[in-house]
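Q: Hi! First time doing this. I have a protein sequence and I read that you can turn it into a structure. Is that right? Here it is:
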Amino acid sequence: MEAKKESFNLIKWAKSRKGQKVLICLAFTAIPLLLLLVFTYIPFGEMVKFSFYKMKYSTPVEKRVFVGLKNYIDVFQREDCFGALKLSLFYMAGSLIQLALALYLATILSFKVKGGNFFKGLMFFPYLISGIAIGFIFKFFYTRGFVLDTILQWIGFELENLPYWLKDQSVNNWSLVATSVWRYFGQNMVLFIGAIMSVDAELYEAAELDGANKFQQFIHIILPSIRTIVTLNAILSITGALSAFEQPYVITNGANGTGTYFVVMNEIAHVSQKVGLACAMAIVLLLIIFACTILQKLFFKFVFRDADSEDESYAAKKAKRKAEKEAKKNMKKGVA
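A: Yes, that's right. Below is the predicted 3D structure, encoded as structure tokens:
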């Protein structure tokens, strides 16, 4: 009888408004967590386990050879793996250029510029194009005697004096980095524009009272105010630089020293069938990304250490300016 009563109360509670709200919240929480568990955390745990074995995809469980940390040691000893890791430095340099360019254009386009919306759309458009399509576009663009070489010949360069943009190892990685910058800087720019437009316009007036020029306003108002977005964009750009894949894979297929870490990992996993080594490479990359993220956060925390005090300073000037305006209004009313 008691159990029946408890069951009835539970059903009644479940049908009530409060009970339905709780059940809906639990459902919306449980379903994403279940999907994350099944498609992210369990596969990640399996990948960590595989990184300690010498195995292929088709190797039965009982025939897998446990090798301990050998795969991790091979990541740093094999020339193709470690060389590909060093290649990420090209893309990191490109990501810094990308951020600087995006921040510069975002600062200009955040204010009233003739045709500003057109230029915003034009520069954001490459980010909307598929990476594979961009790869094919630039493969044609860089091919000997085609688009880029033709443009340079119009300017006055001789074709014989131009390098092979995708074969010459002194320029081919920079060519691929330029492709990556062209594709992604529009995304960074849009994020910067959104952050800059949220800065209170009265802070600029307060800065002008101090006699600050546009560059000083950028350094002391805009940059500290958007520090969260600057940090986010830097983390996304450096992470993207470490995991560059589409451009080198589609344009050169990793040939002539352009094989990035992901391209080499793909070849080791799917061509050589060295699954354990490929898993170890993925774990090493994850640890590097974690380390870079923490270092970036510490770096920006140090760079923007005076930002709060500057914000307070300009906020005080803003309040002072507002008080002056109110005082003038009151004086005019008194005179009237």
